[in-house]
Every structure is written in C-alpha cells, then in structure tokens.
Design brief:
This protein is of the alpha/beta class. It is built from 9 helices and 14 strands. The strands form 2 sheets. Strands 7-1-2-6-3-5-4-8-9-10 form a 10-stranded mixed β-sheet, with helices on both faces. A hairpin with a 6-residue loop joins strand 8 and strand 9. The relative contact order is 0.15. The structure holds threonylcarbamoyladenylate and magnesium ion (MG). Magnesium ion binds next to loops.
C-alpha cells in the first residue's frame, strides 16, 4: 500500500475513535493509540499481551508539545534540541497538569517522550493533533517489526489500519535515556550512542536502571525468536542457521549476513528482519537453533554495536514464561 493523504486522514480519524493504527518510524513500526485515552492505551496493552508494569513511549510532533506534558532539565533540553526529531526517547518527570493517560506511565511519575523523524509518523501526528502512544508493533517479548508485513503477521487482527512505509532504515528501537533526578542514565542503547551523548553533554551516560525495574525493555528475555539463539559463534554447526557479520564462517549452511562489509548501520537495519527470516525459514528446513557471529562494540567507531549486542543478548536469554 502506498500511503496517500486520505490514508493519513483515515488513520488520524481512527485514532480519534480510540482504534489502534500501526505506523512506520525511522526505528521500527509502532502500534499507535491516542495517548490521552485510557481505553486506547488499554487496547495497546491487550493487543501486545504486554505486562501492565511496562510503560509506553508517547510520540509527539516536537519539543513544544513535549514541554506541555513533561518537565525538561537543561540537559534534557540540550538532548532534545540535538537529537529530535530522531531515534532518542527521553524519560522525564510528568508535569502536574499532564493530560496523558496515566496508563502510559504504568504507575510511574515519569513519561517517555519521543519525536519521530519518519515523514509518515510526522504526517500522522500533525493530522491527528494528539499525542500517540506507540510501543513497537510486536507481541510482547517478540522481535520488533521493521516492515509492514511483520506487523500484519503478528498483530493484523488487532489493528484497524497499518500504514505501510516500507522497511525502517534505522532498524533497532530508539535509545532510551532517563533524565530524571539529575541523572543521564542509558536505559536502552540505540543509534544515538553513548559517545554522541558524551560529546554533547560533556559526561557519559550512566548504565542500567540502578537495580529497580525502571525500564522493562531491560527485562532479560526480549526480542526472542522461536528457535534458541547461540551467541559468539566461531564455528557453524550442521543443525544451526547462521546470522553472520563480516565474512561468513566457513562451512555455514543457511545464512543471513547482517553486513558482509562489516558496517554496523547496515547490520542494525537488517537485524530484526534477518532474525525473523532465520527463525521461520530455519525451522522450515528442520534446523533447531540460530548461531550468531560476534559483533564488535569497542571504541567510538563501533558504538552502535552496543545496541545490536543488547538486542542479541536478550534474544539469546533464557525465556521464563515468555511474556
Ligand atoms: O523506537 C522506538 O522507541 C519504538 C518506536 C515505535 O518509537 N518504540 C518502542 O517502544 O520501542 P516500546 O514500548 O517497545 O519500548 C519502550 C521502552 C521500554 O523499554 C519501556 O520500558 C521504556 O521504554 N519506558 C517507557 N516509559 C518509561 C518510563 N516512564 N520510565 C522508564 N522506561 C520507560
Ligand atoms: Mg518493544
């Protein structure tokens, strides 16, 4: 489907009727609902099968809208001015007057805001003139969708419309930074990398959630394909499909290569699509696991490798209950 102005108008009108609309962003596809409406936000949680303690990202047109809902520290302002619109989500204190559904914050007194750069996401936000809550448009714990067809396969019956913008060019979800309480804490690595943040603010982001479950994207098992995943493979085994990076391992059978030339941006853009393909096609061929070659993350030049390895580590983690 190519997206017309009429499609955008229909999508905006569905959002006003508390229906769900999937739409592309530069990172991954989002499962969107009216962020002012408890009914729409509940429908998102239900469609995803997402635990209610895992808060959602709210997408807005720009910084001015964002300031309406949340309080920005001076560092948060610098970050927003440098990286919005773009693949950065800021966790901020909710304003007292904030009219966003409390459900988007899942009981926290903070809210995660992002201004997406994708022209269709921007067109939808401008047409609808409401903030849009949108987690990645996959079932909870599964691989994020980077293509409209992935959304249809996984959530088709739960969404009123899928806006098809083709493949997402970043391919992994936005960087999530907690800026509350004077902290700059990296909750989820993404393509806005720690060296980029350090260059701007003159200090490196802290790592992790400091013990508490501040960002459930930090749940260990996530992005999980059906087949088990084995990391840092230095040899391919006969029962395994291979996710390669750089020159593929000798003797490998069914293989997808994230980037034969070793380019991390290309690898990020390919990651979720290839994991899905290896999973479905590997199982069809009777393979029983996915082996993954090492992806570098050391040094400023390889900083995006941190985000890729974060997703791969979670894809390989044990899957208790698999929510
Ligand atoms: O690239 C993206 O960020 C995509 C596109 C659609 O924008 N969205 C996305 O949303 O990945 P989701 O819901 O799958 O991931 C949101 C992450 C989760 O790890 C969630 O726990 C965290 O942000 N988060 C949301 N609100 C938060 C809050 N108030 N405090 C801490 N973490 C929060
Ligand atoms: Mg997600």
């Amino acid at each position: 489907m190519s997206v017309s102005a009429r499609n955008i108008r229909n999508a905006a009108s569905l959002l006003h009727q508390e229906q769900l609309v999937a739409f592309p962003t530069e990172t991954v596809y989002g499962l969107g609902g009216n962020a002012l409406s408890d009914a729409a936000v509940s429908a998102i949680y239900a469609a995803k099968g997402r635990p209610g303690f895992n808060p959602l990202i709210v997408h807005v047109r720009g910084l001015e809208d964002a300031c309406h809902y949340a309080v920005f520290s001076s560092e948060a302002l610098l970050l927003a001015r440098a990286f919005w619109p773009g693949p950065l989500t800021l966790v901020l204190p909710r304003r007292e007057t904030c009219t966003l559904s409390l459900l988007v914050s899942a009981g926290l007194d903070t809210v995660a805001l992002r201004v997406p750069a994708h022209p269709l996401a921007q067109a939808l936000l401008h047409e609808a003139r409401i903030p849009i809550a949108a987690p990645s448009a996959n079932r909870s714990g599964h691989v994020s969708p980077t293509d409209a067809a992935h959304v249809q396969q996984e959530l088709g019956q739960h969404v009123s419309m899928v806006l098809d913008g083709g493949p997402c060019h970043v391919g992994i979800e936005s960087t999530v930074l907690d800026t509350t309480g004077g902290h700059i804490r990296l909750l989820r690595p993404g393509s806005v990398t720690p060296p980029m943040i350090e260059k701007l603010l003159g200090r490196a982001p802290e790592r992790g959630a400091g013990g508490a479950l501040l960002s459930p994207g930090m749940l260990e098992s996530h992005y999980a394909p059906a087949l088990p995943v084995r990391l840092n493979a230095v040899a391919a085994q006969a029962h395994e499909a291979l996710l390669a990076f750089g020159p593929a391992l000798p003797g490998a059978g069914f293989t997808c290569n994230l980037s034969p030339g070793g380019n991390l941006q290309e690898a990020a853009a390919n990651l979720f699509r290839m994991l899905r393909h290896l999973d479905a096609e590997g199982a069809r061929r009777g393979l029983t696991a996915i082996a993954v070659m090492p992806v570098p993350e050391d040094g400023e030049h390889n900083a995006l490798g941190l985000a890729i390895n974060d997703r791969l580590t979670r894809a390989a983690a044990p899957r208790p209950g698999r929510s």
